Amino acid sequence: MVSRGMAGTDDRELRGGPLGTCPNCDVMIPPANLLIRYESEGDWPKLFAECPDCEDPVHPE
Question: Which residues contact 54 (CB under 8 A, 6 or more apart)?
């Protein structure tokens, strides 16, 4: 399930910039590759996104 356009969207999504980099191969992950976003206690929202290069689901850094 892809999570886009939800209330409380992470700032990175609102700016339209990359979600971060892949921890496996350091490739920038575009917002379109977002798979899921979830809240975590005492931390910013966590994201799972598909890396466009290695195609693994990762937590962008």
Answer: 22, 24, 25, 27
Cα distance between residue 22 and residue 12, in whole Å: 15
For 4-40, what is each residue's pLDDT tens digit?
A: 444 344 444 445 789 999 999 999 999 999 999 888 7
Quickly count: other Cβ atoms within 10 Å of residue 46's Cβ: 13
- Give me the pLDDT at residue 12, please: 45
Q: Select from 17, 42, 8 the least CA-distant residue to 34.
A: 17
CA dihedral 3, 47, 15, 43 (to 10 degrees): 120
